[in-house]
Amino acid sequence: MHAYTEKIREAAQRLLTEKKVDAVIGFRHGTVPMMSEPVCVRHADQVHQLVWNGFCGINLANYLAKRKDRVAVTAKGCDSRNIVIHLQENQIRRDQVYILGAPCHGMVDRRKVWEFLKGREPLQVMENGSSLKVSGKGFEEVLERQAFLQDNCRICTHRNPVIYDELLGDPVPEQTDVDRYEDVRRVEAMDSEGRWRYFNDLIASCIRCYACRNACPLCYCPTCFVDESRPQWVGKTLDPTDTRTFHLLRAFHVAGRCTDCGSCERACPMSIPVRQFTKKLEKDVKELYGYEAGVVVEGRPPLDTYRPDDPQDFIK
Amino acid sequence: MNAWEPKIIAFLCNWCSYGAADLAGVSRLQYPVNIRIIRVPCSGRINPKFILGALRHGADGVWVSGCHPGDCHYIEGNYYARRKFALLKSLLEHTGIEPGRLHFSWISSAEASKFAETAREVVEAVRAVGPARHFIKTKPTWDDIEAPVQAACQVEVG
Predict the structure, then answer these.
(1) Between A226 and A2, where is the model more confident?
(2) Residue A170 shares a structural domain with residue A29
(3) What residue spans define the domains of chain B?
(4) Same domain for A61 and A49?
(5) Do the beta carbons of residue A50 and residue A27 sit within 8 Å?
(6) Once rounded to an integer, what is the mean pLDDT over residues A145-169?
(7) By three-state DSSP, how is residue B106 classified?
(8) Is A242–B137 a contact, with Cβ atoms under 8 angstroms apart?
């Protein structure tokens, strides 16, 4: 069992008994291996459900926007950055959230494990430090955990929560030697037509289920632009132009706010690397305005502020 | 067929560039007829949806023009717009829209000659990129569909 599990249960027990919070949002085991699911625990006698493991990739900040009650929430580095954004955008007050910070070693990408198993069904997946023991009917494999991390975790530079009320473990060393934008630069190097085709192929399998939107903690608009009908800016069909419009606007909506938590990609049933859109914006925001989303509570998101001397070479 | 002329949607701020267009007309300055002007209250009013909407409907280019930084009627609308446009232009071009299709400018209501000059620049830039091929949902006119369909029929019947 992961060392954090005991701490989470202990903290949940304490907070619920002392009535410091109305609920604890965390993870419990899913119905199949490698699928931890979010759970909202309201009573102290249910805290045994709470667990922590390498499959808690869902961003729990998604369940905080516009809440009225007080909640405790387990937060990895990315979750905590999204909580910071919620605070900046007045989606929740600081005194409403009790943050159980979880220094994170990266989350395992279940799809990479499935791919490795080539059709064999994993029935049990155990984590032991840096290894992953996957076993099923007639097989047992020991995998190197690091090689099966989610793409965004592999290049993560904020593994420790940026904001918390208590830490579940000692801070982990941050990765400093990662190249966050290697893939973006590869696309930038293509010509215009090549880029068009690259993104065409990328979203060709999109079924417009909006799972990426629903999994995103930043997408809390009362009416999403895809649901608007008067005027209707985005068609509801699978027309390639409509699909691209959706992806472009979704990415633009999270410009300067996206923490690259990878929820969108992990939620996508078609395994579309939708982060390719948001990462370009993240790179631009960093280069143009020197801003990294959700790292400090003070200050405003880049599109909510300006400097008189912002770059404007592209304007005649 | 050399009849193609670029169609450009221009979003002009009511307080400056739209006035500049007016002044250009009153002053009898010549500029190309390829732009269709949509008047907006401020360049900050431009939602990326508008620009995508124009492209989706088959515009070959989009031109957004507002007040010079510091001159915004609403004090700071164009400052916010500038950040939005920088990111939008970069994102669209990153995903394969040709760089010559999106244009932005600051033109005050006194700068009629700059307006005419920029209009020429924009039209020439879009002409250089050629007709829009990507990101079109609705074709603008029947003519644009007719020619290729006719050509296809010709091939069919030999």
Answers:
(1) A226
(2) yes
(3) 8-157
(4) yes
(5) yes
(6) 93
(7) strand
(8) yes
**Residue A302 forms part of a structural domain:** no
**Residue pLDDT, tens place only, A33-46:** 999 999 999 999 99
Is A312 inside a domain boundary?
no
Same domain, A163 and A18: yes
CATH 3.40.50 fits B8-157, yes or no: yes
Burial A50-62 (b: 16+ CB within 10 A, else e): bbbbbbbbbbbbb
One domain, residues A55 and A173: yes
Using CB atoms, pick whichever of B76, B93, B105 lies closest to residue A306.
B76
Span A207-215, average pLDDT? 94
Please indicate, yes or no, if residue A313 is contained in any of the structural domains: no
Q: Which residues of A touch B (CB under 8 A)?
A: 187-188, 192-200, 225, 233, 235, 239, 241-242, 244-245, 248-249, 251-252, 255-256, 277, 280-281, 284-285, 288-289, 302-303, 306, 308, 310-312, 314-316
Q: State the total domains in chain A.
A: 3
Residues A22 and A167 in one domain: yes
pTM to 2 decimal places: 0.91
pLDDT at A3: 86
Give how far Cα A232 sits from Cα of A226, B35, B43, B134, Å.
8, 24, 21, 20
Tell me the residue range of the domain where A130 lies: 110-148
Has residue B143 got a pLDDT over 70?
Answer: no
What is the model's pLDDT at position A229? 86
Q: What pLDDT digit, counting tens, does each position of A117-141 carry?
A: 998 999 999 988 889 999 999 999 9
Q: Contact, B124 vs B46, CB < 8 A?
A: no
Structure tokens at B83: 């950040």
Give the DSSP letter string of A129-181.
TTEEEEEETTEEEEEEGGGGB-HHHHT-S--S-SS-SEESSPPPPPP-S--TT
Q: What is the pLDDT of residues B98-111, one digit of tens each?
A: 999 999 999 999 99
Contacts of A302 in chain B (CB under 8 A): 83
Mark A153-186 as b/e (b = at least 16 C-beta within 10 Å).
bbbbebbbbbbbbebbeeeeeeeeeeebbebbee
